[in-house]
Each structure stands twice: as C-alpha cells, then as structure tokens.
Write a structure and sequence with these properties.
The structure is a single chain. The chain has 3 domains: 104 residues, Nucleotidyltransferase, domain 5, CATH 3.30.420; 87 residues; 116 residues, no CATH class. The chain is 55% helix and 12% strand. The chain has 14 helices and 7 strands. It is globular and about 75 Å long.
Length: 339
C-alpha cells in the first residue's frame, strides 16, 4: 500500500494528515513542534510513505532537516502557488494537511526549493548584513534630515559615515540636538563594524564557485552582490528557462492580460526579494560605470519613467547573469546591449 503524508506547519504546532493511493484518510493528528513526536507518528507508515509534504513557512528548517536525516523523502510545498477550490465553505489545518498529501499523490504539487543545509547558515548571515545596512541607512537619513531641518544645509551621506561622536557638538549648538546626533553617529559606526565583520566572515567561509567569478564580469556587480546572487540562487540548473529565473528574481511584471488589456495583477511577491534587491543595486551601479547600460536606461526613462527604466535594466542584468552562471562564461556586453 502506498501512503502520502502532508504536514500543515505553524509556529508552535503542526497537523499531519496521511492518505493512501485511493485518497482514503489513514490518520490525522495535531502535534507540538517536536521532531520526536512527528517521527513517532510517521514511523508505523515509513515503509509505505512515498513522501512527506511540508508547507513552506518561515520555520520549516528544523522539520525538513530532521525528516531527511531519518530517511524520509521530503517535498517543500509552495503555498503561494497552491490552488484550492474557491467554493469551499470551511477549511482548517486538518483539511489543508490532507490537501497537501492529495496534491502530491496526483503529481501536481507546486514545490519549493530545499536549500542545502550546509550552505544555509552562510546565506542567512548575508541576509542579516542587508538588514544592518538598511538600519544604518535609516540613521543616516534621519541625521541628514536633522541637519537640513535645523541648519538649512545638507550633508552628503558619505560625509555622515565619517563623522565621530565628538563632532556632533560642532554641528549643533543645542545640547539636546548634539546628544541626538551623537546617538545616530554611534549607531552608524556600530552597524558599520558589524557589516564589515559579516562580510569578512562570509568571504572566509564561503566556497567561491566558478559562477562567482563569472558574475564579477558583469558591470554593476561587485563582490557582495555576486555573493548574494550566488548564495540565494544555489543551483542555477533548477531554473529550466531564463524566464523562470527572471520571475524568481521579481524582475518581470505581475499582471493578467486578456485580449491585450490588463485585467488585474497576480502575486507580485512571488519569488525571492534578496536577488531582486541585488539586481536593482547592480542596475544603479551599472548606470555609473557602463556607457551601454546608461544609454539603455536613458532610452527607457525617456519613454516611461525612472522606476520602470531601473527595473528594465535590472531584468536585463538578471537575464544575462542566468546565462553567465549556467554556461560559466564571462559577460559579453555587446550581446546584452546590442540594438
């Protein structure tokens, strides 16, 4: 007898539903998020299980890793791509778990990518770097706003990054404003130290693949962006076509068309926000350092606007990087920007 299991996962508990090849429900139970409890329930059916489907929530690492280590074939369900019958009046965790198992049995389960465990921590560390960069930027902008609001002048962000705490008293006469500025400067310097520390740790621990060297040949992509793209993508061959990769990187429009007319939008957040950020950053740098990229941007901007032009250039760079990583060849700007 073949069996199929689906797990609807939450922050503190999960519901496991198991069906057979005729869609009969063999068992269903809510458990606490304890690997031992999950293994104990699945053990009697282990030899019959064709696979275990786990819903891709923010906390799937422990469950997927634990099941794989104990010999289970695990599939990660992509919840944003799963369709349900809209006429249903009532659904719950029990129904959802059996539905996951049902989709897997039929062979139509939309699956997510199970990122290799040994590389996951380094990738997540680089994600924390981006969080610290954004926090530092917020303090820089806040201090810039203080200076403009109180002094009527502006200070470039690069100059603010170089400020020391004692210089705050030279900028502001008010004791309270100087104290506030000192706090901003202190946090900016602290976050800078953490960002540099993360960069050194990631570079030291990451095994740089050929794809990394090839990405560096693309205008606008430096070491940090290349690392981000390499670690977020993982195996480039999991994307069958360049369009799948562009969609994953959120570089394409999300819209529904009928008879050439826009009828609405699909889920714009499908994909990965980190390579999406990386390619937008790469587009900004490419405009400064690559004449062909600047000309392409200016043509798009003249037809539409700045935001559309940046996204168009980021999509172009993303598509180029797909072939660069897949074929492991250097970037050829003549092929990318030819008219």
């Amino acid at each position: 007898m073949k069996a199929y299991a689906g797990i609807d996962l939450h922050s503190s508990n999960n519901f496991i539903g198991v069906i057979n090849e005729r869609d009969d429900r063999l068992s269903g139970k809510r458990l606490s998020n304890d690997l031992g409890d999950v293994l104990m329930m699945l053990e009697p059916l282990k030899k019959d299980l064709q696979g275990v489907v786990v819903e891709s929530t923010y906390n799937w690492y422990w469950l997927v890793d634990g099941l794989q280590e104990h010999g289970y074939k695990v599939h990660l369900a992509n919840p944003s791509a799963i369709k349900q019958y809209e006429g249903l009046k009532h659904t719950d965790d029990k129904w959802d778990s059996f539905w996951l198992a049902h989709l897997f049995r039929l062979g139509i389960l939309p699956e997510g990518y199970i990122y290799p465990k040994e590389q996951r921590a380094i990738r997540d560390l680089l994600r924390r770097r981006l969080l610290f960069v954004r926090q530092r930027t917020s303090h820089i902008l806040s201090l810039q706003s203080m200076i403009t609001r109180n002094l009527g002048t502006s200070m470039p962000s690069n100059d603010i990054k170089k400020l020391k705490e004692e210089e705050a008293k030279e900028i502001f006469e008010s004791e309270h404003l100087a104290f506030m500025a000192q706090n901003h400067i202190s946090l900016i310097q602290f976050l800078k130290t953490k960002i540099v520390g993360i960069e050194k740790a990631v570079m030291a621990e990451t095994r740089l693949r050929t794809e990394f060297e090839m990405l560096l040949s693309i205008p606008g992509i430096g070491k940090i962006l290349a690392l981000t793209i390499m670690l977020e993508v993982g195996d480039i061959h999991r994307f069958a076509q360049v369009g799948n990769y562009s969609s994953y990187c959120r570089c394409v429009k999300s819209e529904r068309l009928s008879n050439g007319k826009k009828k609405g939008e699909n889920n714009r957040k499908n994909g990965n926000k980190y390579p999406a950020w990386a390619y937008v950053e790469a587009a900004h740098f490419a405009i400064r350092h690559c004449p062909e990229a600047k000309q392409f941007y200016q043509r798009k901007e003249a037809k539409r606007n700045r935001i559309v032009a940046i996204k168009a250039l980021s999509n172009k760079i993303a598509r180029a990087s797909y072939y660069v990583m897949r074929d492991q060849v250097p970037f050829d700007r003549d092929r990318l920007f030819r008219t």
